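Minutes, structural biology subgroup

Action item carried over from last meeting: produce the structure token record for DNA-binding response regulator (Actinocatenispora rupis). EB confirmed the sequence was re-checked against the source entry. Recorded below for completeness.
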Amino acid sequence: MTDGRTTVLVADDQDLVRGSFRVLLDTAPDLVTVGEAGTGTEAVRLAAELRPDVVLMDVQMPEMDGIEATRRICAAPDGTSRVLILTTFDLDDYVYAGLRAGASGFLLKNTPPADLLDAVRVVAAGEALLAPTVTRRLIAEFVARPRPAAAASTSLAALTARERDVLTLITRGLSNAEIAAHLFLSPATVKTHIGRLFDKLGARDRAQLVITGYESGLVTPARPSEG
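Output recorded by EB:
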């Protein structure tokens, strides 16, 4: 952060789009744009140099697409930036690939300005964020995608029974307060369990915990209703 403000790097191949996002972000007193990238390669370089709190990442960019750029930014050993992917395309493959690459959130470019600013704040705070339509598509993707039978025992072997309970509720979308009430725990205890889940599962944030919960078979989502 800079002077208490959340720092943001804007990565998009269109000058007008980058400029518009920059103006919007800089109008918020708690946010500040620290750089702009016009290619995926430049986004990776600037993320390493500037170490922004959040990277607003377009999917389709020259030299390197936003998914690969996200993967490299999130995989950097000393990287601390969280990635919020913005795209005009509401497609399953982008959502799944982006989250697997380490993205903390996924929003469409037609998201209202106020919601986009809130999204940056949510992601900077370490929460997972998905647009409602994207969430439904993501669940559908997990329903359709077969999971290896051994996945659960492999990825969750190190977890205690209580940690599994917490992960299950995170995967189902419950907030910390709701998890605390459901399991009759204090909010501080819930935070401690979540911190241990991050460490044991190598997750950066809640989005990655949700991915693990579904892929391990710990939670099996109901199929979305037709229509």
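Discussion: Confidence is low (pLDDT under 50) at residues 223-227.
Next step: EB to file the record with the rest of the batch.
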